[in-house]
């Protein structure tokens, strides 16, 4: 009996050993197959990574100003218009396409100083708020701040309200004591478009400066501020452009800004 059990044990061991060898052969074949295909898999992953990086690169790369002009169907020399929002440090550059202005680019202001509210006097380090313009005479290609143009502060409204100050500009060099400073790279784009517009189609380039976007929601939020009534007047000019796509003709009557159609 003992010999019979031993024989059965040896037979079972032999079967398991042979089965193990078969399984090992199957594993080796499977690994070989994976190994042979791994190059394809790796190449596929590398290709996907390359495509992904290419897409990310295109997304991250900001279109050049010339590409943006082309997209809008506009050209350097066409009429331009500037809006500034102090709270969010934005400078919008608009260009005329057909009968309306289209947003060409929204720049981040590199440096500005002061707080929300108008400039009141020389030396208060405050950026102005209101409606200004640039003419050929106000361009300065030899500025110590790389390039600059004077926006014409104080304007008629400022003078009526006895506000003082001088040499308020949009310029490069990223430093500010009341001006709106851009990086040198960005002022080069802005300056070229303003200059070419003044020497091609326009006598002036309008510059409208607001404390913030004059939406009803923002106006409600700032309703308790000292300058709320002044901002209500600014909002009239803001709304005119939002509704018409053309900056208004601005005048001052009885100490308030007034807005109407530009006489061509």
Report on the architecture of this protein.
The protein folds into 2 domains: 1-61; 65-260, Beta Barrel (L,D-transpeptidase catalytic domain-like), CATH 2.40.440. The chain has 6 helices and 11 strands. The chain has helices at residues 2-60, 65-72, 156-160, 184-198, 216-221, 228-244; strands spanning 80-85, 90-97, 100-108, 130-134, 139-140, 148-150, 169-171, 180-181, 205-210, 249-253, 256-260. Strands 3-2-1-9-4 form a 5-stranded mixed sheet, with helices on both faces. A hairpin with a 4-residue loop joins strand 1 (80-85) and strand 2 (90-97). The longest helix has 59 residues, at 2-60. It is globular. The model is unreliable at 16-58 (pLDDT under 50).
Topology:
Elements: H1 2-60, H2 65-72, E1 80-85, E2 90-97, E3 100-108, E4 130-134, E5 139-140, E6 148-150, H3 156-160, E7 169-171, E8 180-181, H4 184-198, E9 205-210, H5 216-221, H6 228-244, E10 249-253, E11 256-260
Parallel strand pairs: 1-9, 7-8
Antiparallel strand pairs: 1-2, 2-3, 4-9, 5-6, 6-7, 10-11
Average pLDDT over all residues: 84
Percent in helix: 40-55%
Which word captures the global form? Answer: globular
Query: Can you tell me the CATH architecture of the largest domain?
Result: Beta Barrel
- Per DSSP, what share of the residues sits in E-state strands of 2 or more residues? 15-25%
Helix-strand category: alpha+beta
Name of the CATH first level of the largest domain? Mainly Beta
Given as residue ranges, the uncertain stretches (5+ residues, pLDDT < 50) are 16-58
- How many E strands? 11
> First CA to last CA: what distance?
122 Å
**Major β-sheet annotation:** 5 strands, mixed
User: CATH topology of the largest domain, what is it called?
Assistant: L,D-transpeptidase catalytic domain-like
Strand order of the largest sheet: 3-2-1-9-4
- Annotated CATH homologous superfamily of the largest domain: L,D-transpeptidase catalytic domain-like
Please tell me the total number of domains: 2
Number of helices, where a helix is a run of at least 4 consecutive DSSP H or I residues: 6
Order of helices and strands: HHEEEEEEHEEHEHHEE
Radius of gyration: 34 Å
